[in-house]
Design goal:
Length: 377
């Protein structure tokens, strides 16, 4: 560990997602952190706190809509009880983060905002909440961005660039263990067919119609290809109808939801990963950790420029391609550029893995937080 000065931190966050826990554990090794969790069940918070020996407080809330913007009870009191030197919270559109900002001001301690958004959203909720978001962004003492695009978005609010730090948005930086591996092609009767993989919930923002349109032409040039889609969600019926309408059922496999820790066989079977996310007008892919995870498994990747991670992770022509959003012809060309050159696959995959291991690890991510905290003096 570097000589970071130890601080008491109140870290307000909505969920205990598996891929965030390694970051939280690293922060707690250096600082005295109280994690205030606002949108998670009591049993999960208790289990995680006990397993990883983390100081966690779980707050109740009132559900609003689909649950993302829940009204949380007791943020101000929980922050005060932690007696922090610094308060950190994520996403200024969340009521809990806005309350954390107010709590920091009441205690006259610095507030750090951690945020991944990189394009303005146009939803009714967002338009209504924009004044409060601007207040938090401009009033933050330091800001921590996921990557280069979210940093630029923060600067668009008029924030002093010296206040903005990057904590490279990271997931697990080692391939999944062999103990979970199975022969996916054998299990699902894919034989010697070549697999292109897409992973993500079946939502409008994920852009699957765009991918299927491109795919209907890709397979005309290489009928041995099969697209494996891992994920489930409200758009499944629509996607299945598109597949049927394009008459490409023999070239697409819908696998449904698969837990992250069991995705290893899918990455192992694939030659590349495609992430065709699109701008819906109300939502944009803030990052897309699927890219990180595919790249650590040494896969070339293709993504649209509507994926936040693509701007930082993809080196065009070296480990994959970033293509314009809503351009199925460009997506088709990028896929074919990789699958038509099998000799390039291994080299591009090696570059993918190198990008992650050299720059997008939990160590590098935690260091971004440490630097932001240390800069406060």
């Amino acid at each position: 560990m570097r000589g970071w000065e130890k601080k008491r931190i109140a870290f307000v966050h909505n969920r205990l997602l598996r891929y965030r826990l390694p970051l939280f554990r690293r922060l707690a090794r250096v600082h005295d952190v109280t994690f205030i969790i606002t949108n998670e069940d009591k049993a999960t918070v208790s289990r995680v706190a006990k397993k990883y020996k983390l100081n966690m407080v779980r707050l109740g809330n009132i559900k609003v809509g689909e649950g993302y913007y829940n009204l949380t009870m007791g943020v101000t009191k929980a922050v005060a009880k932690a007696k922090p030197d610094v308060v950190i919270a994520a996403d200024p559109s969340l009521p809990s983060s806005q309350l954390a900002y107010q709590a920091a001001n009441l205690r006259h301690v610095p507030f750090i905002l951690w945020w991944g958004e990189w394009e303005a959203q146009n939803s009714t909720v967002r338009r209504f909440g924009e004044p409060a978001i601007k207040k938090v962004v401009n009033g933050s003492h330091r800001l921590i961005a996921y990557g280069s695009r979210s940093r630029d978005f923060m600067l668009s609010y008029g924030v002093d660039e010296k206040k903005v730090f990057i904590a490279p948005n990271s997931s697990f930086s080692k391939p999944l263990p062999d103990v979970l591996m199975v022969d996916l092609k054998k299990k699902f009767g894919l034989g010697g067919r070549r697999v292109v993989l897409a992973v993500g919930r079946l939502l409008k923002v994920k852009g699957y119609p765009l991918l299927l349109d491109a795919w209907s032409r890709v397979i005309q040039k290489d009928p041995n290809l099969v697209l494996v889609i891992v994920g489930d969600g409200p758009e499944r019926g629509s996607i299945e109808r598109i597949i049927e309408g394009l008459n490409i059922e023999d070239h697409v496999r819908m696998m449904g939801a698969v837990p992250n820790q069991r995705l290893g066989p899918y990455y192992k079977a694939a030659e590349m990963l495609v992430m065709p996310s699109t701008r819906t007008g109300e939502n944009t892919e803030a990052w897309g950790l699927v890219l990180n995870e595919a790249m650590v498994h040494s896969l070339p990747v293709v993504a649209t420029d509507a994926v936040g991670a693509a701007h930082d992770l993809i080196r065009n022509g070296e480990n994959g391609f970033m293509v314009p959003d809503n351009d199925s012809r460009a997506l088709e060309r990028a896929i074919l550029e990789i699958v038509d050159n099998p000799r390039k696959v291994a080299k591009m995959g090696a570059t993918s893995r190198s990008v992650i291991t050299q720059g997008y690890t939990y160590e590098r991510m935690a260091e971004g937080f440490f630097r932001a905290v240390q800069s406060l003096g």
